[in-house]
Amino acid sequence: MARNLTRQLALWSARVFAAHPDRTEPIYFALSGEHPVYQENAFLSSRRIFSNANVYSIHITTENRFLRERIHSMLQTHLLSVLPGNCALIQLVSFLPNQNRSVIPGFIVQDFQRKEETEIILKDMAKINECLLCSYKKSEGADLWQQSIWCATEGAEVKGSAHYIIPAAKPAAHVSVLNIDSVVFHCFEDAYAALQECKESIPEAKEILHLADQSPRHMQRSNFPVIVIEGLDATGKTTLTKSLQETLKGTLLRSPPPQLSHWRDQFDSQPAVIRRAFYALGNYITAAVIARESEKAPVIVDRYWPSTTAYAIATEVVGEKENLPSLYSKVYQWPTDLLKPDLVVVLMVSPEERIRRLQERGQVKTQEEKELEENNLFRERVDEVYKRIEGSICKIIDANCPKEEVLQQVLHLISQYCRL
Ligand SMILES: Nc1ncnc2c1ncn2[C@@H]1O[C@H](COP(=O)(O)OP(=O)(O)OP(=O)(O)O)[C@@H](O)[C@H]1O
Ligand SMILES: Nc1ccn([C@H]2C[C@H](O)[C@@H](COP(=O)(O)O)O2)c(=O)n1
């Protein structure tokens, strides 16, 4: 086990850490075995984190993605309620630069009163939640170094090797991108496996897995075209899909499908990996119905895989749309095992028009709509992901015009790309 611990801590020292002191640009630092030589001013902001307090970091190292997110959100609320007064919590992630799925979430804990009980509390939390606990000290030369004081895999207090802390460069790929393939699923099996990880904690997951098991797989569309309508809330999808259904005498479907709709609120409140797996399996179940219905008439679908991908990526990635995975990243590629439509129409309207329509509709804003309204950056990321979805299958429509004009634009696209 000691060898395993050595390997683990060696891997640990290869990581870069990103501390988000106040949700602004993260401060990046790394570990070094050698005596660091760096310019004082290059590291001033990080020293702000590590000075005038006893500083710890707690890292959630459990492999189970569902548990990891649950522990993270539990620690977020619990630590501040149990830690002695005058402690601060800073979001912290450690990762191997540009390596997918290497992100380990955690926190920096600053104890400005330097209470002994803080370390006791943190060790208890680390024991219960499979965490790695580290402390930070200054050496005589005022250098900073990290010491691991509790290691989950050992289940004991360990004095792992100490590492100096040195400034680290901002990584090429934004750290929030490294987790993307745990929230965007490119095959049925991955989405299915994600829900299996939580079925003991969320009984409804078993019912969804059962429905997915019953649903025929690898279906292709049949005699009639399949048109998917996409876009942010209040861009006019419902209005357009109903008009298309009448005009084309088609079948109107929605994803997630009716048999999953009553579980949406519950899964919308779950950690990202579970929430997105729910919608991903909904797309696979819908695909079987699309294939069957396309034997008889044109099929119009209100939201499908593009929604699941756009909202998952836009939620996972923070900041400017420049932080999104690069233009030709595989994350934008259509899953090879999911029925592909003939055409995806993405409705885009100006922020002002969207809010006007939301207010006109007088509908209670969902949490995400509130976020969209407050967070232009989030909305811009959703729209940008729609534009990056692989190949020419997605067509962007300026939907700021009246309903009838939008309908005519889309009918023209259908005449170009679909054989009716
Ligand atoms: N082209 C348009 N011009 C003006 N108003 C429109 C247009 N299309 C839809 N609307 C109005 O905007 C509001 C939102 O339309 P709709 O419900 O079709 O959007 P949506 O994209 O389906 O929204 P959500 O995804 O939230 O269900 C409705 O009040 C609708 O009447
Ligand atoms: N196939 C789908 C359909 C919907 N979603 C998610 C994306 C948003 O979080 C939300 C919006 O849906 P609406 O309430 O407008 O029907 O649902 C998804 O991820 N995949």
Automatic annotation (TrEMBL):
Keywords: ATP-binding, Coiled coil, Kinase, Mitochondrion, Nucleotide biosynthesis, Nucleotide-binding, Pyrimidine biosynthesis, Transferase, Transit peptide. It is found in: Mitochondrion. Residues 229-409 form the Thymidylate kinase-like domain. GO terms for cellular component: mitochondrion. It holds the Pfam family Thymidylate_kin. HAMAP family: Thymidylate_kinase. Coiled coil: none annotated. It comes from Erpetoichthys calabaricus. GO terms for molecular function: ATP binding; dTMP kinase activity; nucleoside diphosphate kinase activity. Its main location: mitochondrion. It catalyses: CMP + ATP = CDP + ADP; dTMP + ATP = dTDP + ADP; dCMP + ATP = dCDP + ADP. It is an enzyme of class 2 (transferase). GO terms for biological process: dTDP biosynthetic process; dTTP biosynthetic process; dUDP biosynthetic process. This is UMP-CMP kinase 2, mitochondrial. Its EC number is 2.7.4.14, 2.7.4.9.
